[in-house]
Amino acid sequence: MKIIIPVDEKSLISNVCVSFGRTPYFLVYDTETKKSIFIDNTGAATSGSAGIRAAQIVVDNKIDSLITSRLGGNAANVLKSAEIRIYKSIEGSAKDNIDTFIEGKLSLLEEIHEGFHGQRGN
Amino acid sequence: MKDFMDREVTNMKIAVLSGKGGTGKTLVSVNLATAAKKSAYIDCDVEEPNGYLFFKPEGAIEEEVSVKIPKVDDKLCNGCRKCINFCKYNALAYIKDKVIVFDEICHSCGGCNLVCPENAITVKEKVIGRIQKAISDQVTIHTGILNIGEVSGIPIIKKLFSDKEVEANKLIIIDSPPGSACNVMESIKNADYCILVAEPTLFGVYNLNMVHELVKLFNKPFGVVLNKCMESENPAELFCVEKDINILARIPFDTYLGKLNSQAEIAVKKNKRYRDMFSSLLDKIIKEVQHEATTHPQR
């Protein structure tokens, strides 16, 4: 099973990034091979709706579960269409989150915010 | 009062703007349009137009405004993702072998339709709002209304100005949206003169500064109307003095005027003092525009 976490730095001890769409990197962790890779969020600097572009990256990497602190409505729609499970991150490093996830102690993200559309240019 | 028609002016567009909402754009706009007698009043504040409340016209003619958004034929799509990569607004995603369109994010640029090698993308119309046209005495009122939840009012503002009757009018008063972003730029881009309405607060000055930069960027002749003036020091006035900005008029902080305005009455119709004030303001602006036309014909 592959899980993905938005992270501030390319390190397992990095914090979970507060933004899903504008995170600089994603950590992809494979629970079977126990291998982790880091990928760049190529949509981080787009002018708007970065969440959709980031969700596309998640889908394209054939991810099963996302761990994030927050998520906007449009990105959530993309991920739900692709049947990706979305978990709420806990305080601590990416590794803490992976361990908690494997223990089955992370809860599903219930609160989806409405996004920040139109708040940049207006 | 001298009739505007005697002034031998052809098609003059005066835009009224202010960075901050609630400063007095509509107050100034409806009173100028009324003082001019024959004029067109264009309410470009499409997110919450309220100018028509003052004119109370009857029998508005309404027209829908729509934009074009993509529609994807899944059978023709080969999954090349050229459209996804093209869209700078991220309005498209490719999930489970299908293109998903986020209608509300699409800016109707038509690019996806152009880059699709399979002609799988066609366009469909999506209604985003409407425009209304009505007459009250000698003022033609054009109102733009954007539906709640839509991203951009630009197509509505464009539609307002596309009406030939607007162009045919000798004097056009444009009631701009608040702020200094795209909607405001679209509203003032063809204006001959900009009136910046300012209120005597520090917050007001901050916003005045933004629209001041905007009109300079657009190379528009402009002047300031100070609204809600009191005896005490006026930060907006200090700003004008400091930047050497022409102060066109000072509207007092007057509870009588406030009351008239809150009852959707046009002060020019009710009170001689305000009739004289807005008539002389209009005269002053017309002279400025005529002066501009002779000294800066390139504008």
Give structural notes.
Chain A has a single domain, classed as Dinitrogenase iron-molybdenum cofactor biosynthesis domain (Nucleotidyltransferase, domain 5), CATH 3.30.420.130. Helix content of chain A is 24%, strand content 20%. Chain A has three helices and five strands, in the order βββαβαβα. Chain A has helices at 50-60, 73-81, 94-102; strands at residues 2-7, 25-30, 36-40, 65-68, 85-88. In chain A, helix 1 (50-60) runs parallel beside helix 2. The radius of gyration of chain A is 13 Å and the shape is globular. Mean pLDDT of chain A is 91; it is low at 118-122. Chain B has a nine-stranded mixed beta sheet with strand order 3-6-7-2-8-1-9-10-11, sandwiched between helices. In chain B, strands 4-5 form a two-stranded antiparallel sheet. The two termini of chain B are 31 Å apart. Chain B has 299 residues and is of the alpha/beta class. In chain B, helix 9 links the parallel strand 10 and strand 11 (247-252). Classes of the chains: A alpha/beta (122), B alpha/beta (299).
